[in-house]
Amino acid sequence: MAFIPSGTFLMGDADTASANAQPPHMVTLSAYCMDLTEVTVVAYRGCTATGCTTPSTGEYFNWGVAGRDDHPINGVDWNQSRAYCQWRGGDLPTEAQWEYAARGTDGRIYPWGNAAPASQLCWNPTSRSGTCPVRTYPSGNSPFGLFDMAGNVWEWALDFYAEYPMSVAIDPTGPTSGTNRAARGGSWGFSKGPYVRAAYRADGAPVNRSHTVGFRCTRGAT
Prior knowledge:
By secondary structure, the protein is α+β, with helices and mostly antiparallel strands. It contains three helices and ten strands. The longest helix is centred in the middle third of the chain and has 10 residues.
């Protein structure tokens, strides 16, 4: 895991292409730790012997496919993802924790900076047909050294998906009720720049299992 120091940053995005990430607002976070990579197939397999349920299989899914141990696990819903993180003694990241880990305090648009996405990530501007092994694109690392914070798979967040508040927040945990859960980061199946902006928000029903969605975990700093 990477240590993410405490800090204050402007969460959200005023760009019209990211209307669901408005309004930008100041957030202060305590220090925490977060996985350097998305949870891989081999890592998730370690939990299935002690209660984690198996992911979906089939075309584009990584579970049960030879040679995919170092690819991100996909085909897991929000509940499966959270159960795995709790098995490890942590949890899914809040949206605020995820975005801060992706962009730091300098207001960058993407994890690697402000340059338009090109070869910094696993995505589909031409003809990609699946995920990439984690750590494939170090040039796209976040300010804290995290891999694949853009592309590869969307990542479930802890929060319900809802409008942002208008005020400054300290260690926000998101809305206390809702229907869908937030997801971040874009995936290998997308080819449009707005989807891999660090502030861009997606959502899905917690029971959804997609070949474009995975997760990573977080825990306290101590």
